[in-house]
Amino acid sequence: MKDAPPAGQPAASKAHAPADPDGPPETAGTHAGRISGETETTGVVGVVLAGGRSSRLGEDKARLRLGPRKKYGSPNAVCPAPADRPGREWAGHDWIGRERTGPDMLTRTLRLLRACTDDVAVSCQSSRDVRPWRRIPDEREGMGPIGAIRSILRAEQRPVLVLSCDLPFMTGQVLRRLLAARAARPSDALMTVFRQTETGYIEPLVAVYEPACRPWFEAAVAAGKRRLGDVIPESLRACVPYGREEALPFFNINYPADLEAARLLAEHRAHKGSGEGDPGE
């Protein structure tokens, strides 16, 4: 029996679309069936969640960079003493800056979304300047991802692929797999989300939310809920299974140790030529 929506809201359709033999494999816990006339990206907006305070990390996640540190000088350069160049470290005949190269996490995440959705935007506090990108401000700050997604659904009124800005190894391939599963979802599925096979844990910060999700988010905000994974009932999810060996794209940065681990892994992958999970992967 499907969960009823919060009081005073219309029920979702109970009819399942017929299965498409050419579609993606059946998603875990659901019947796969393509919604008539829908392509993988039809009407989907990609939104980066960048409204957190990053209090556990101690610096803004959205502005983190994982590329190698900048080098100054050359093997033939005459360099001053290290004391004359604060903020840099001596390495042979080069100065190694503390600042990192490459796109910051916000830009990288937006590029990933732009490669596989019709439109992109940033969900964040009203005070954050994200130009030239479009901003969807939180209507009520301090409500966490639940409040942010409610604000997004109110503003957009179309399917939303949300993606947290602190996933340094997320790839376009993973997002396209999610969108393919969303196109093949049952007609009454309101959320398409990855679920780890071994634990049953879902990844609600890498998910597609349909416009009909809004009543559940309104009710969650009214009730003061904080756990995003509990907002949409299990019976209304289309789940995409993944195993522990596929978990790297879901690695997120919450603490300084996570950041250090991510940078070490990114450097290791760069040396091996595997990159950091660019949109083309």
Number-wise, the strands total 10
Sheet/helix structural class: alpha/beta
**Approximate strand percentage:** 15-25%
Low-confidence stretches: 10-37, 75-79, 93-97
Q: Strand-and-helix sequence, N→C? A: EEEEHEEHEHEEHEH
Rounded to the nearest angstrom, the radius of gyration is 21 Å
Task: Report the sheet with the most strands, covering strand number, pairing sense and barrel closure.
Answer: 7 strands, mixed
| pLDDT averaged residue by residue | 79
Name the helicity range: 10-25%
Give structural notes.
The structure is a single chain. The longest helix is centred in the last third of the chain and has 17 residues, at 256-272. This protein has helices at 105-114, 144-156, 172-183, 214-223, 256-272; strands at residues 45-49, 69-72, 88-91, 94-100, 119-124, 135-137, 160-164, 191-196, 202-209, 237-242. The strands form two sheets. Strands 6-5-1-7-9-8-10 form a seven-stranded mixed sheet. With 281 residues, it is an alpha/beta fold. The chain is globular. Helix 2 runs antiparallel to helix 4. Residues 10-37, 75-79 and 93-97 have low confidence and may be disordered.
Give short descriptive properties of this protein.
single chain; 281 residues; alpha/beta; globular
Quick rundown:
The protein has 281 residues and is of the alpha/beta class. The chain is built from five helices and ten strands. The longest helix has 17 residues, at 256-272.
How does the SSE layout of this entry go?
Layout lengths: L44 E5 L19 E4 L15 E4 L2 E7 L4 H10 L4 E6 L10 E3 L6 H13 L3 E5 L7 H12 L7 E6 L5 E8 L4 H10 L13 E6 L13 H17 L9
Parallel strand pairs: 1-5, 1-7, 5-6, 8-10
Antiparallel strand pairs: 2-4, 3-4, 7-9, 8-9
Helix pairs in contact: 2-4
